[in-house]
Design goal:
- Helix 2 crosses helix 3.
- An 8-stranded mixed sheet has the order 3-2-1-4-5-6-7-8, sandwiched between helices.
- The two termini are 24 Å apart.
- It has 429 residues and is an alpha/beta fold.
Length: 429
């Protein structure tokens, strides 16, 4: 596989960050950003507490609620602990963290919030019910948002009286280690809402990108082909260790199986089902994930998934029991070298990125690389997904895709890629 130019890659990453810091997320210059000093978080699960901690750590007041009384009771200490564990300079002293956090028992208690974010279960009707119930209690100036990772914002906004103030604010997991935040603009979302959401994400030290409304938005659009390819490789005879080592050798922070564990097997299963409903020609449903789900191997949070984990959630090794679960679903016994594994894992990701660009899902190709590096852990040493593609060249990528034609649409060259190859052009034009 082509060795990256580390100097060019580093320069590109620096340029991506510099551009992001200057970007307001909208083209208009006359839009006023609303100040955000008090944030509401609906849902005191792992994601909700992590988001609340990021806010408290930056000196923002937080009101948090949850339908589960036990989860809500645990949330106060969990949020303070998570905020205290953050290791960079803080805008507030750790001793002030408890004073910044408020536990809400009723929707009326969110009336003082400048921005309210729901982080509940990834189910359309449940989210709609909560948003519809909450909206009447919020001032007209309050931004209402969802942390959904796959559900289109337009579908959620359809139950709201004022969809203009609603958007997606999708934090990537784990919140403390992933700087990317997707600001998802629905058809009705106003410029003021987008600009305020972008500025809010920057208050938290994040790198926000504005994306259009599509199932999976950008991050999961390019992530799921990668994850799906990993399961397909297991079904074709590659071992879990071979798949993981290929991704790690390429430079990924986590291999795809380790990433499944981090996301949560159950969460990935439900989100993957949503993605498959929309992109059936490009995501191959695998029986392997449901098998792990049924066996209670839900990933880091349960101490076992593809890997076994210690009490602190650190990966020990690929669990021996996984081989027994995978075995019934191995369809063939092919052998793969590392280059073949890399092509199978990363070319579908690249192709999906070209589709997102063709659809106008992002405002600039550089947003794809910000998402890949800071949301998915794509190796910064390769400069980003599209920077890596430009170093290879579109013509070379077409040659790499040719042996994968048997896989069908998910490995078929896109019109954008073919156009670049035909004219010798690059994504970074």
């Amino acid at each position: 596989m082509h060795a990256p130019d580390s100097t060019a890659a580093a320069a590109n990453v620096a340029a991506l960050i510099q551009r992001n810091e200057a970007d307001r997320g909208i083209d208009r210059v006359d839009v006023q950003v609303r100040p955000v000093r008090h944030v509401g978080v609906i849902g005191a699960g792992v994601m909700g507490c992590a988001i609340a901690a990021s806010n408290v750590y930056r000196g923002l007041a937080v009101t948090i609620s949850d339908a589960d009384a036990q989860a809500l009771a645990r949330s106060a200490s969990a949020v303070v602990t998570l905020a205290s564990e953050l290791d960079a300079d803080s805008d507030s002293a750790p001793s002030s963290y408890p004073d910044l956090l408020h536990v809400a028992q009723a929707d009326e208690q969110f009336a003082a919030c400048d921005l309210v974010l729901e982080t509940i279960v990834e189910t359309l009707e449940v989210k709609r019910k909560v948003l519809r119930r909450l909206e009447p209690h919020l001032p007209a100036t309050t931004v209402l948002a969802s942390n959904t990772s796959t559900i289109p914002i337009g579908q959620l906004a359809s139950v709201l009286a004022v969809p203009e103030r609603f958007c997606g604010i999708h934090f990537c997991n784990p919140v403390r280690h992933r700087r990317l935040v997707e600001i998802v603009r629905g058809a009705a979302t106003s410029d003021e809402t987008v600009a305020t959401a972008v500025a809010y994400a920057k208050q938290l030290g994040k790198l926000p990108i504005v994306v259009g409304d599509s199932p999976g938005f950008l991050v999961n659009r390019i992530l799921f082909p990668y994850l799906s390819a990993a399961l397909e490789l297991l079904s074709e005879g590659a071992t879990p260790r071979q798949v993981e080592e290929a991704a790690l050798s390429f430079g990924m922070i986590l291999g795809p199986l380790g990433l499944y564990d981090l996301i949560g097997i159950d969460t990935a299963f439900y989100a993957g089902r949503s993605m498959w409903d929309t992109f059936r020609d490009r995501i191959v449903p695998s029986p392997i994930l449901p098998a792990l789900f049924k066996a209670g191997r839900l990933g880091v949070k349960k101490g076992m998934g593809f890997y076994a984990y210690d009490a602190q959630g650190c990966a020990l090794e690929i669990d021996a029991g996984v081989a027994r679960l995978v075995e019934p679903y191995v369809r063939e016994r092919r052998t793969f070298d590392e280059q073949q594994l890399v092509a199978r894992l990363f070319l579908p990701m690249l192709l999906e990125a070209t589709r997102a660009l063709q659809e106008g899902l992002v405002r600039d190709p550089r947003d794809v690389d910000v998402a890949a590096i800071f949301g998915l852990g794509f190796p910064a040493a390769r400069g980003g997904l599209l920077h890596w593609a430009d170093e290879l060249g579109a013509a070379t990528i077409l040659e790499m895709l040719a042996p994968l034609a048997r896989l069908g649409p998910r490995a078929a060259p896109t019109p954008m890629l073919e156009e670049l190859a035909r004219h010798g052009r690059r994504f970074y034009g």
